[in-house]
Design goal:
The protein has 327 residues and is mainly beta. 3% of the residues lie in helices and 49% in strands.
């Protein structure tokens, strides 16, 4: 295994393409926020095959537009850790101020980063990672998404109870609106925005033009993040608690609840494997759950402390833009 010392001292090019074995199995990479590590799971054997160190607090991920590098945020470590997205081999790190959650704009021009601890939203050049713009947007910027044409960006401000939007062409603020207690996950869907409101146990649909709330839907305690399946047939909400935690499946058009899956341990981020199984990080159980959505049964795999972001290498077979919320 490549150690932290070697990974940080070796140029990216020398590590690119190195695998853990003769051939690269499909892998699940889990960001253990309280464990300062990334667990790498062989999806076939369901065994942890490597645990790579981070600095302090790995949280979310983004795949570079060329699909050659997976960046994992280390928020309080002030760094991106780079990995081979096929093998999970470490490729070094890049210094970045407080990266908590991040995403590339659909036109691949910018990389936008929510700095949750430092209370700003940063816009970086996607190629050079040079800082282009910093917005003092509110308290605890949490999650973000874009309009598909890269015209607008939207960021939830967790402690300010607001949604912030800026223009991607002019890099100027459009509006900041109150939307509910402790907002988190954000997803552009059918010309509107879906935002999880943790303090109100559900989601809201928001008009991207002016930020007004169109409709609400209760899903479960601590509704935290939102995901759309590949076929655009199911919208998943992870209800992280406190209380009875679960994963809720909704119709993406009507927002009617199709099914609720009770899953103890605080479901956080998810990924959907080619066999239809849903891989779920359990934030407060130190496990990853593998859910059969047909039966509602699941198995678990022990990982590190406070598993948070979750990436499946099998998503690389998909065409188009890949993000943590389009699974």
């Amino acid at each position: 295994m490549i150690t932290r010392r070697l990974a940080l001292a070796t140029p990216f090019a020398l590590l690119a393409g190195k695998a853990f074995g003769e051939s690269a199995p499909p892998i699940c990479m889990v960001m253990n926020s309280a464990g300062a590590s990334v667990s790498i799971i062989d999806m076939t054997t369901r065994q942890v095959i490597a645990t790579e160190p981070a600095f302090r607090e790995p949280s979310h991920w983004a795949l570079t537009p060329d699909r050659q590098t997976l960046y994992v945020c280390d928020a309080s470590g002030n760094a991106f850790f780079a990995f081979d997205p096929i093998t999970g081999a470490p490729k070094g790190h890049v210094k970045i101020a407080d990266p908590y959650q991040l995403a590339y704009s659909p036109d691949e021009k910018y990389l936008v980063v929510n700095a949750l601890r430092l209370d700003h939203v940063d816009v970086y050049d996607a190629t050079t990672l040079a800082l282009v713009k910093r917005f003092k947007s509110g308290k605890m910027p949490s999650h973000l998404d874009f309009s598909p044409d890269s015209r607008w960006c939207f960021s939830s401000q967790q402690e300010s109870d607001t949604l912030f939007s800026f223009d991607m062409a002019t890099l100027t603020e459009r509006w900041t609106v109150p939307i509910g207690t402790t907002p988190a996950g954000v997803l552009w869907l059918n010309g509107k925005l879906i935002v999880c409101i943790m303090g109100e146990d559900g989601i809201i649909e928001v008009d991207p033009i002016d930020g007004h709330i169109i409709r609400r839907r209760k899903t479960g305690p601590g509704a935290h993040n939102v995901f759309l399946d590949e076929a655009n047939n199911i919208l998943y909400i992870s209800n992280r608690g406190p209380g009875a935690t679960s994963l809720t499946a909704l119709d993406p058009e009507t927002l009617e609840i199709k099914r609720n899956y009770p899953i103890p341990g605080g479901p956080d981020d998810i990924g959907i494997a080619p066999d239809g199984k849903i891989w779920i990080s359990l934030r407060f159980a130190e496990d990853v759950a593998i859910l059969d959505p047909a039966t509602g049964t699941y198995d678990t795999i022990p990982v590190g402390r406070s598993p948070h972001g979750l990436y499946l290498s099998t998503s690389l077979t998909r065409k188009g833009r890949l993000t943590a919320e389009t699974v």
